[in-house]
Amino acid sequence: MAFGQDGLNVGGIQTDSVFTTLSNLRTALLNDDRRTVQECTEALSGDLNRILEARGQLGARMSRTEMMGYRIEQDVVEAKTLLSNTFDLDYTNAIANYENRRGVFEASIQTAVQLLNVSILNYL
């Protein structure tokens, strides 16, 4: 679509937009056409309503997009935390804990054997 020097469509097709209304208002003011000026001011009111509606829709979309972005960020943080907890093992602490539990287990078995003094010969 080609535009002339004054910003109007060279093809002569007028669209229902704020720019067309403003162009018509400019022409009406230059020609001192009061009736067209009145029509253009009324049309500007409708243009403003369309702009406000589009702005509201855009705001709602932006809000949903921001919420989705926030949720994705939270999911990434949770996934990283889960991976960190799964793979980041303090091996020194884990081995020491294992050895401690193994020692307690062996000591409890030795104590049980000494207290019970059980042997197969006792059952013969």
Write up what this structure looks like:
This protein has 124 residues and is an all-alpha fold. The protein has a domain at 18-88. It has helices at residues 18-30, 34-87, 91-116. α1 (18-30) packs antiparallel against α2 (34-87). It is rod-shaped and about 125 Å long.
Number of helices: 3
Structural class call reads mainly alpha
Number of strand segments? 0
Radius of gyration: 41 Å
Helix proportion of residues, in percent?
over 70%
| Biggest sheet record | none
Which short descriptors sum up this protein?
124 residues, mainly alpha, 3 helices, 75% helix, rod-shaped
Summarize this structure briefly.
This protein is mainly alpha-helical and 124 residues long. 75% of the residues lie in helices and 0% in strands. The protein has a domain of 71 residues.
Helix and strand arrangement:
Layout: H1 18-30, H2 34-87, H3 91-116
